[in-house]
Write a structure and sequence with these properties.
It contains 17 helices and 17 strands. With 585 residues, the protein is an alpha+beta fold.
């Protein structure tokens, strides 16, 4: 019933500008469209080429309006590849190069499947238009953006730290959207040097490579031939602007580069076909009853969601980390946070198998408790410890003149972003922005006698009602309305207020259940990093890939000076939950 709402307008207004400056408008179905460069003739002599522009989505424009210089809306993620194949052999070419990425991009027809990748934002900020590069080698009349979007750089030398610095740069350096909307850095080296692949998995890859080494016949010691094969890794670090698409859609679209792309598409198509057949089997009365139930759910659920959100805004007049920011600005802190500037604290790690986390959730919280509930509980426990550490640090500060202090908050608000299409990109659907969000009040700094199990049950109780409401859809609708009809200063103010002074944003991204491959190379790890919007000091991504749950933390350095410590607190809370679940089973 809400498919048109979720996927945006069914038509898009295209503006075609010819060489003589004349323009024409036409309404076209929202499907793949071709770009031609103004002033560039094709093989047919004398034929005029037109510059076809496409109107931006409302959410795309909203992301441009709501970002600031210190909080650009640029989702960032990396893929870590090894030269091991699915049959545990090694590839002929150990690393991915920029030229190979280019060849794969065009061989997989990415320029035709997702033409928005070959666009930029017009100077007026309301349209997508083609970038000013042209290449006729791979496809006649199609823009070639390779040289401006893909770069090859030196691999990391300092374990994890170099990769952290590059991720921080991608998150904080403002991208010029009038030049490009995405970019990728590719670097290659020995497995385990960057930290993109976990230490445990890196050791396994080294061991597997040694087992594949040829041995010299007749050598009693079993020594090698002298040409030892070293396992290699390739880090592909991506970033895109939110005006291009949301991060989930970007990752789904890049799935077309995978060796398993057709298999994944077929699974999605079968799933959608089953849903369609299930609807078709319903009688007219059943369809009418479902529509009435959906309408009533949306109507009354919207009223409740608006009242609940208004209550959160009224009862949370201050962000808990605002105390910390004021202390760091006034110098009343034992550590001068201003020395860190406006950078980001970055960390990531693997946590546990998906089945284990599900077992913990069901054992402690019951059949309706989800993995997301478990990690929201763990993250809020880490937020409480971070605030307590700031408070202790302030009390031991040599500066006793300041009257400010870090107050204790028994409850905090969290923002939970949600993808309105369930995290999938249907075959034939172009990338776009389908992100909503809701805010919930969850436990903050609790008494020491409160166990992790009790915290999880309280978190689940807080989230279950909001998750079943149309709050995410309403936030999506509000963003569209603000972008289309409200003045930019007012839209920015409302966006800043809409998070209800939340302390942290926690998003859940479900990846592929089995490891996938690009040109035979195994994608060993995927990690996404939350682009902090204005007013939100911490972002955590809970993601699953290859039947393993991993976490990433992105935070303002004045709020979380060391993201590795913050991540350790999350893991500590999870280990306590796991121990309590084992004791209960």
């Amino acid at each position: 019933a809400f498919s048109t709402l979720l996927y945006g307008e069914s038509t898009s207004e295209a503006i075609s500008t010819t060489q003589n400056g004349a323009s024409s408008r036409s309404n076209k179905k929202d499907k793949t469209y071709e770009y031609f460069l103004a002033g560039q003739n094709d093989d047919k002599k004398g034929q005029q080429a037109a510059n076809l522009r496409k109107r931006m989505t409302a959410i795309g424009k909203f992301s441009l309006r709501s970002q600031t210089d210190s909080n650009p809306s640029q989702p960032t993620f990396f893929l870590a590849l090894s030269n091991h194949t699915r049959d545990k052999s090694v590839t002929k070419d150990p690393t991915m190069t920029a030229s190979e990425f280019r060849e794969t991009w065009y061989r997989k027809n990415m320029h035709r499947k997702h033409p928005r990748f070959h666009s930029k934002v017009s100077s007026c900020g309301d349209f997508f238009e083609p970038v000013n590069y042209y290449n006729s080698k791979y496809s006649e009349g199609v823009v070639d953006t390779y040289d401006s979007h893909v770069s090859e750089t030196l691999h990391m030398n300092v374990y994890r730290q170099d990769l952290k610095n590059r991720i921080e740069t991608f998150l904080t350096d403002v991208m010029d959207v009038t030049e490009k909307l995405w970019e990728v850095q590719i670097s290659s080296g020995d497995v385990g040097t960057s930290g993109g692949i976990s230490h445990k998995r890196s050791q396994e890859l080294w061991k597997e490579t040694q087992e594949l080494q040829p041995t010299t016949s007749g050598s009693g010691s079993g020594s090698g031939t002298g040409t030892e094969t070293i396992p290699k890794e390739t880090i592909m670090l991506f970033r895109s602007h939110h005006s291009l698409a949301d991060a989930v859609s970007i990752v789904a679209a890049l799935g077309d580069l995978l060796d398993e792309a057709e298999e994944i598409k077929e699974k999605i198509k079968c799933h959608l076909d089953r849903q369609k057949k299930k609807i078709q089997k319903c009688s007219t009365l059943q369809k009418l009853w479902k529509f009435i139930k959906s309408f009533m759910w949306f109507l009354f659920g919207s009223i409740q969601a608006i009242m609940r959100h208004g209550y959160l805004i009224l009862t949370t007049p201050r962000n808990p980390f605002l105390d910390v920011q004021e202390l760091s600005n006034s110098g009343g802190h034992c550590v001068n946070m201003n020395s860190a500037g406006c950078g980001r604290s970055i960390s990531w790690c693997d946590v546990a198998p998906v089945d284990e986390a599900k077992r913990v959730a069901k054992t402690i919280g019951g059949p309706k408790t989800t993995v997301n509930d478990v990690f929201v509980s763990c993250v809020t426990a880490a937020v409480a410890k971070q605030l307590a550490q700031h408070r202790r640090c302030h009390k031991t500060s040599c500066d006793t003149k300041t009257r400010s202090t870090v107050h204790k908050y028994n409850t905090i608000n969290v923002v939970i972003p949600a993808h309105l299409a369930g995290g999938i990109l249907p075959p034939g659907r172009e990338i776009g922005n389908l992100i909503g969000a809701f805010v919930a009040k969850v436990p903050g700094e609790l008494d020491e006698r409160v166990s992790p199990t009790d915290r999880l049950k309280m978190v689940h109780k807080s989230l279950v009602t909001v998750k079943g409401s149309p709050a995410s859809i309403l936030s999506y609708m509000f963003a569209k309305f603000a972008s289309n009809y409200l003045p930019e200063p007012l839209a920015k103010t409302l966006f800043l207020k809409s998070n209800a002074n939340a302390a942290v944003a926690i998003t859940n991204s479900k990846g592929y259940e089995q490891k996938v491959h690009i040109n035979g190379r195994t994608v060993e790890n995927m990690a996404g990093f939350y682009p902090l919007p204005p007013g939100l000091p911490i972002g955590v991504v809970v993601q699953s890939y290859g039947n393993t749950i991993s976490l990433s933390v992105t935070a303002e350095k004045w709020a979380v000076p060391d993201a590795d410590i913050f991540l350790d607190w999350i893991l500590e809370e999870y280990r306590l939950l796991y121990a309590e679940a084992c004791a209960m089973s």
